[in-house]
Amino acid sequence: MKTENTTNAIFDKLFERLLYPMLVYLPKGAGEVFKQSEEFQVLDKFVGFMLAIENKSYNFIVTEQSNLLFLIGKSKLLESNMFDLLDAKENLSNEQFHFLANKYKSHVDSWVYITQELKKDIVKVNDDLFIKNKGYIEHQAINLEQHQMTIENHFPSVDKTRHNIGLEHLSAKILEYEKSKQTKNQQKVNKKTTIKKQPLISNKEVDNYLLEKVFGVNVQDF
Description:
By secondary structure, the protein is mostly helical. The chain is 58% helix and 6% strand. The protein has helices spanning 7-19, 31-35, 74-91, 94-124, 128-132, 134-154, 167-190, 203-214, and strands spanning 22-25, 50-55, 58-61. The chain has a three-stranded antiparallel sheet with strand order 1-2-3. Strand 2 and strand 3 form a beta hairpin. The two termini are 28 Å apart. 23% of the residues are buried.
């Protein structure tokens, strides 16, 4: 790592290796909130899907035919991030490194939480898709948790964040957002006397919202 690298450039490299590849999902438990409101049952079909993000330009919804072997290489990328963090500690000022390490660690903590929830879901749910990919799901969760612990052991000054959001709280936030969006759409409709009734929310809008707001994935990169 060259000393002239900016803190932002170093972070971008770390974050890219952290995110790609990744297996993300909307947990099945989130569906209970949607089922309470008939008008939002259209969202229920999105509950429990898994999205494989291979790199910046390629992602896909996981099916029973999907090949997820590329996920095995994630451990090597996380090791590379540790080497870069060690280099950064030597080459950056204390203030710069503290900012970089804590910013990166906050993202690591978030993904540890998400992957641990997915790991717990495969135990609760008798779903062929989850069972088929159990090994990848567990491998991902273990790798990220070990990475989290390694960072904390090597850099004791980093924040030790532990997420405990809870699926009901997470789902309620999604539902609140969609209700607000529906109200705004209805106000626009009321201004027009002749307009064909539109679907409550498009598939693309649901996908983009979940990726951006829940998983922190920038859909503009795909």
